[in-house]
Amino acid sequence: MLEEYANKPYELTGKFKEIANTLSSETQKDLATGDYLFGRGLLDMKTGNAIIIALMEEISKNLENFSGNIIYAAVTDEEANSAGMLAMVPELVKIRAEEKFEYVGLIDTDYTTSEHEGDENKYVYVGAVGKLMPSFYIVGKETHVGEAFNGLDSNQIAAAITNRVNVNTDFCDVVDGEVTLPPITLKQRDLKPEYSVQTAKTSTLFFNYATHSSTPDEVMRKMVGAAQEAFQSTVDDLNVQYERFCGLSGRTYTKLPWKARVISYEELYQKVKAEIGDEIDSIIKEYTDAMLEDDSLDVRDFAIKLVEKVHNLWSDREPIVVVYFSPPYYPHIHVKGEREIEKNILSAVTGAVHTTETDYQVVYKKFFPYIADLSYAAAPSDPQIIAALKDNTPGFGTKYNLPLAEMGELDLPVLNIGPFGKDAHQFTERIEKNYSFKVVPELVYKTIMNLLGEAGAIRQKTVLSQH
Q: Which strand (E) or helix (H) includes residue 85?
């Protein structure tokens, strides 16, 4: 009923006062203070863009006292496939070569919020959390529902994997006292195309997996191990249930034939290649080319279709779980302060915080905790890590592309100084005005100026401001 005011913050804030009793207690409290401005997208991410634009305008008025360069990259699609940033990375490399710039860091103004209930801190983040999407193609053994123990339900294995991995702190990364959130499912479904009384032969699921230190090869090993445990628990439980059923129905119990088997997509590919040789590559290319003609096909569905296709080429028809990665991939960036460029960015932001008068408690954290385009300012350099990613991401290099070479060439430390607010993506999305409009612009401005100063007065210096 307030749709027409969704993008009119001042009017919307007034309208919320008229229906305050329908809002949560925390929202009512914030509304009553007068310190918050409400509006869809105001926190994530319009205010951050406005801060950079305002600073660019302010700096342009006094260029004779300014030394250095700022590149403002306004990038779209961050919360889907990061198309904007992925297109921008090669441009940044090109600009640096053409202009002979020396990049000294990348600053984002993405939103910040309380990290837990009652948290009054305001945060500056130096570094960025990473993300992988470990995915599972589960092959069971179909059966008629009237013969339940003659088959192996792929949905039951999927449920066991979810139970083993979902929100399990065994899979949290802990670096310098900072902890990633545990993995959580983003999709789980069987692959039956229609309703029938046949059980599902195949199912799939994938997880959002945050990283501070774990690399693709390490996550693959962890997920293969977890799936093996989950599969085995399913087999064990089925045997327990079948033995009970036989006792109840007066039948003779014989152990069920199922074996828990889990392999990576790369291992599946190698097994099929061992059987049919290089023909597998021709088949994959032909299938890929056909799917690429359908622009509406989601990149994650593209990946699962490739896994399914390769598995169908294998002579082995027994139940199995294939672990692979679905796009997108975001590398984590840990700014350790070991390189000169890292020391400079840490010094620049420290100086900005210490010279800004404010009543807020501003706290440093080493990883921006929300998936962000910041991650594409660098890439892993270890060939083993890159191979584990590419070889286990079906469609990598065709449907899904990452400018890994250019990301590695940029290799920039990153930080986030953003507006503060609450309820991003909700209808009660709001920003705290004083911190967002007064403190954050000063922090960003001083950080930029400190960075350019830290880099030295002789060299050509450039700060990237990305949003």
A: helix 83-99
Predicted pLDDT at 457: 44
305 and 372: one domain? no
Q: For 383-419, how does the pLDDT look when each residue is reduced to its tens digit (9 = 90+)? A: 999 999 999 999 999 999 999 999 999 999 999 999 9
Closest CA to 326 of 380, 265, 285, 369: 265
Q: Which helix (H) or strand (E) holds 219?
A: helix 216-249
Q: Tell whether 115 is covered by a domain.
A: yes
> What DSSP string runs through 361-387?
-EEEESSB-S--GGGGG-----HHHHH
| pLDDT, tens only, 178-234 | 999 999 999 999 999 999 999 999 999 999 999 999 999 999 999 999 999 999 999
**pLDDT for position 302:** 98
pLDDT in tens, 66-79: 989 999 999 998 88
Residues 301 and 425 in one domain: no
Mean pLDDT of all residues in 338-342: 96
**Model confidence, pTM:** 0.92
Q: pLDDT tens-digit profile of 345-380? A: 999 999 999 999 999 999 999 999 998 999 999 999
Same domain as 171, residue 30: no
The DSSP call for residue 397 is T
* Integer Cα distance of 10 and 143 in angstroms: 60
CATH number at residue 61: 3.40.630
CATH (domain of 242): 3.30.70.360
Give the Cβ contact number of residue 126 at 10 Å: 26
Question: 267 and 344: one domain?
Answer: no
- What percentage of the chain's residues is helix, strand, coil (to nearest 5)? 45, 20, 35
In this structure, is residue 396 part of a structural domain? Answer: no
Angle at the Cα of 122 from the Cα atoms of 116 and 126, rounded to 5 degrees: 100
Domain count within the chain = 2
**398's tokens:** 């065709």
Asked, for residue 408, whether it belongs to a domain, the answer is no
User: The tokens of 305 are what?
Assistant: 């279709």
Phi, psi for residue 213 in degrees, rounded to 5: -140, -25
Find all residues with CB under 8 Å of 340, minimum gap 6, and list them. Answer: none
Length reported for the chain: 467
Provide φ and ψ at 248, rounded to 5°. Answer: -65, -35
Q: Where are the alpha helices (DSSP H) in 250-324?
A: 265-276, 279-292, 299-312
Residue 421 structural domain: 3-100+111-129+331-378+414-466
